[in-house]
Specification:
Elements lengths: L17 E9 L3 E4 L15 H12 L15 E8 L2 E8 L7 E5 L4 E5 L11 H8 L6 E3 L9 E3 L2 H7 L17 H14 L5 H28 L1
Antiparallel strand pairs: 1-2, 1-3, 3-4, 4-5, 5-6, 7-8
Helix pairs in contact: 3-4
Amino acid sequence: PLSRGCDGSVDRGAVRQLQVDSIELVGGDRRIDLQPGVNVVLGPIASGKSTFVKLMRALFTSVPSDLAPEAQQLSSLRATCQIGGAPWNILRRLTTTDTSLVEVIGETETILAPARKATAAHPETFSDWLLSTLDLPEISVPAAPSRPESEPTPVTFADFFNYCVLRGDEIDSSVFGHKEPFRDIKRKYVFEIAYGLYDSSQAELQTELRAIESELTFLRGEAAAATR
């Protein structure tokens, strides 16, 4: 949740808490401070409310390609956060390159990590670091829920984060599912993981099943070749 206790303290579930205290729009000469409790952003049409949500998403996941023209003039985002109960400063450049480095500065260490795609010099991504720091499970799930043997797809930090972001036209129809099939699959898994409904032992069995299915396919091919 992007909030904190009304007294400013870290409450129950602090290990997994992601708290944003402030965001500075570098290149836009603007700083946004979030207060304890629930923050409501109000304003007329075209005042930047949706852009603010997109910039929040850009800070932790990927940079949207449809940012408003005024936001495209920004060079980066600088934020002060509480992640996993510890204070961190994040510098995120507003580039869509998956290997763009994100700078994360803590009280005792500084981390440079690619946004979403690992490199030889930086094998851990910013997404991986967030999963680990927030104690979120690193799980790969079947791409097609109705076919447990289908190719696995990882549940990334972006999947967890985007589950919390709903556009106006999604509030009444896409909380537990989504009209886009792929997002529907991920949102279903994130819901099950977040509420303890996803069985990790089942995931391991599905991984074994995929391996057995692959071996059977190979053996069938060998048998067909031998028969010919």
